[in-house]
Amino acid sequence: MKTEEVGQAIFETWTVDEVEEAFKAGKIVLIDVRTPQEYMFEHIEGALLMPLAFFKADALPGQSDKQIVFHCGSGARSEKVSRAAIEAGMAHVAHMEGGFGAWKGAKKPYIGTNMANGAPHRVN
């Protein structure tokens, strides 16, 4: 995990392995900031959706029980959202390095679309 101080806030960049471990343990809320179309085509099972275009820091859940970790396709949008969350007053923000592309590249499980019938299916 990489850590950066931004003013009074802490900005963390997590690896896909760190995200997977914390997500499985129920320690984080994973928020996908890609478009609804990207999410519907394939996503990490259990991740919430808050697209960058509709991002509102004041609509985020509190972090008293679980830390929020943002992710997108490559890491660029989630970093942008993370920095916007810091500007909005959040003191502890994290995002997943490399985004969903890195998640898939590391052969982590996700929900994809069966191209033969259009139905969602688990990809391991």
Automatic annotation (TrEMBL):
Q: Which species is this record about?
A: Pseudoponticoccus marisrubri
Keyword annotations for this protein, in alphabetical order, are: Transferase
Q: InterPro entries attached here?
A: Rhodanese-like_dom, Rhodanese-like_dom_sf
Q: Which domain of life is it from?
A: Bacteria
- PROSITE patterns in UniProt: RHODANESE_3
Q: Which GO terms describe its molecular function?
A: thiosulfate-cyanide sulfurtransferase activity
User: Which segments constitute the Rhodanese domain?
Assistant: 24-112
Query: What name is this protein filed under?
Result: Sulfurtransferase
